[in-house]
Amino acid sequence: IGRSFIDFLHPKDRNAFASQIMSGLGVNKDTNPTQPVNKPVQIIFTRIRTYCGLTSCFGVKNNNVSFMPFKVQLAFKDITNAEGQSFYLVIQATPISSAFAHPNEYLSKPTPFHTRHLAVGKIKYMDPDSVMYLGYLPQDLIGKDILQLYHPEDLPYLYQLYETLVRDKCTLRSRPYRLLIQNGEYVRLETEFSSFINPWSRKLEFVTGKHTIVEGPSNPDVFASPHGIKYPKYNEDQRAKFQNFRDNIVRVLNKVTTKSGKTTNPPTLKRSMELNVYQAPSNADPAPVLRLEVQQPADSSFFERDSEMLGGISPHHENECMSGSETPLS
């Protein structure tokens, strides 16, 4: 009683907890400060120190302080008591347990979780549903390189998958591969990858993954300390090869994609060519206009004779042709 709640949090989670409180304390300018303010419930994941008593933690310097992960709900409320009206922060903490009970466990109905990372591999979003499967809190992975979590021996396959994702611009479902979790072990999971490409720059903005756990880790406690894990030893050439695959994945994700389909529709191109041909004489010098003035002779007999010789029909014969057409044949 009387101690600050932040003192019981893990040092890595104190900044995230403090920023969450500051965002909840923000009051809009249009809000009347004299009226009761009940902020919506905010959720944050944090590690809280376990109880230390005189019997279990008498020699604090010689014992390691342990923390447990919790799902914390924060709510700000105005409560009126005998001393008057006060502004309180109500905290409801629920412990989180590992999703696995046995080593290398196969889950029948695992809950899918989502991630989002940029073209450089930096994680921008981590689904809170992943905490019980991976052991990481969301703030632990934000800004980290997701390529470092892939098993080194699975990088050649993941490179081909990313290359197909960028080239075909489609949703791909991977085969099972390994991902590093908080306790230093690996889980096997399948991922449905999709990407968003900026239509103006034609560059990939981010990759979204919908992950489903297939097989659990050797140590079912995903929140355990990673100390004592024996990793396979790779020589310098192997480590350089793995890093080369990571660099190639980043290079593929940052490559400018080409436009799909034909850039010009053939009918449109044909109409454009016809229009250019039709308008071509307008660009040339205008041809001289020839005018010919013909004076009609006084004697119209010459005009009629010339018309008959040229195969024309004289206007004076029009009535004769019409009357002749109405005469029945004998």
Q: Could you characterize what this model shows?
A:
The protein is α+β, with helices and mostly antiparallel strands. The protein folds into two domains: 5-95, no CATH class; 113-253, Beta-Lactamase. It is built from eight helices and nine strands. It has helices at 14-25, 131-134, 138-141, 155-168, 236-253, 266-283, 301-309, 318-325, and strands spanning 42-49, 67-81, 84-95, 113-118, 123-126, 172-173, 177-180, 186-197, 204-215. Strands 4, 5, 6, 7, 8 and 9 form a six-stranded antiparallel β-sheet that branches. The protein has a three-stranded antiparallel β-sheet with strand order 1-2-3, with helices on one face. The chain starts with 13 loop residues before the first helix and ends in a 5-residue tail after the last helix. The model is unreliable at 260-284 and 296-330 (pLDDT under 50).
Number of domains: 2
Distance between the termini: 133 Å
The main sheet comes to: 6 strands, antiparallel
Task: State Rg.
Answer: 41 Å
Instruction: Please bin the fraction of helical residues.
Output: 25-40%
CATH fold-level name of the largest domain: Beta-Lactamase
Q: Tally of extended strands?
A: 9
Shape: globular
Name of the CATH superfamily of the largest domain: PAS domain
Q: Please give the CATH class of the largest domain.
A: Alpha Beta
Q: What is the CATH architecture term of the largest domain?
A: 2-Layer Sandwich
Reading the helices and strands in chain order gives HEEEEEHHHEEEEHHHH
